[in-house]
Amino acid sequence: MARRSPGEGSITQLADGRWRGTFEAGYTASGKRRRLAVTAPTKTKCRDRLRERMQEENGAFKTAVRDMRLKAWLDSWLEARESQVRPKTFEAESGPLRLYVIPTIGQIKLSELSPDDVRKVHAKMRRANLSSTYIAYVQRILQQSLKAAVMEGHQIPNGVILMPRPKTSISDREPIPLDDAKKLVEAAWALHGDGDTQDGSRWLAGLLQGLRLGEALGLTWDHVDFTHNLITVEWQLQEVRKRDGIY
Fold first, then answer.
1. Distance CA 156, CA 150 (A)
2. CA atoms of 58 and 45, how far apart (whole Å)
3. CB-based burial, 41-55: b 16+ in 10 Å, e otherwise
4. pLDDT digit string (tens) for 39-65?
């Protein structure tokens, strides 16, 4: 085998006397490594063909990068993202991207995105009576995905990534009044005593300990310490949506 510099591929002689050149060309859509090859009757011709084939592949990659649309990138990013975050987080991130971002600006090339395109998404969300807090959240997810695209070699205009997010709205929610909280606890305790339902325990844990729904549903007895009056919250029980017929 001829020793070549990294990135130049390798050349070997076959049993029949011909020469074979190979090089790594990224990965397939399923994640398998792509290894391309050329053959020639002589080592010199094999080296020339290998160089030409690598240049063709590099040109095709640059064209794919240059012409990639936002929708194609987000589809790819979300596919990888699904295995990186919790189901509820993935649902919260993928939902607005597919509902508002992709239909509005998904056909624009990554290299041609502009702040005005992002503002079009804002306008669509405002027409749906969504809060500025939620709009800012969606913009943050979009910008996060575009930063990942930059790491993959895509050219994204800085103005899109650095664009300020809308100011978050002021929440008008108030704490539950004490008398109402007592009524909720009483109602939950009544449910707890009903042999036909276990919802009461979940509501009591949520109201008294401030547990989220998934945290309360995922709580198991081995995480409840009656000796020290301590509850350890380490797990959540979350619904995994059915996709392609598989859970």
1. 6
2. 20
3. eeeeebbebbeebbe
4. 999 999 999 998 888 887 776 555 555
Q: What is the largest CA-CA distance in the chain?
A: 91
Joined tokens for residue 130: 């969504």
Measured from the Cβ of residue 191, the count of other Cβ atoms closer than 10 Å reads 17
Average pLDDT over residues 220-237: 85
Tokens of 154: 């895509």
Return d(Cα 84, Cα 97) in angstroms, integer: 17
Instruction: Give all strands of the β-sheet with 19-27 in edge-to-edge order.
Output: 10-13, 19-27, 33-40
Beta bridge partners of 70: none
DSSP state, residue 69: B
Q: Considering only residues 113 and 56, tell me which one the structure prediction assigns the higher pLDDT.
A: 113
Q: Please name which of 22, 25, 21, 16 lies closest in space to residue 46, comparing C-alpha atoms.
A: 21
pLDDT score of 242 more than 70: no
Report the C-alpha gap between 50 and 44 in whole angstroms.
10
Residue 35 is predicted with a pLDDT of: 83
158-180 per-position pLDDT tens digit: 999 999 999 887 767 788 888 98
Q: Are 54 and 9 in contact (CB under 8 A)?
A: yes
Q: Is 227 exposed, middle or buried (0-12, 13-18, 19+ CB in 10 A)?
A: exposed
* Closest to 109 in 3D by CA, of 68, 137, 75: 68
pTM of the model: 0.56
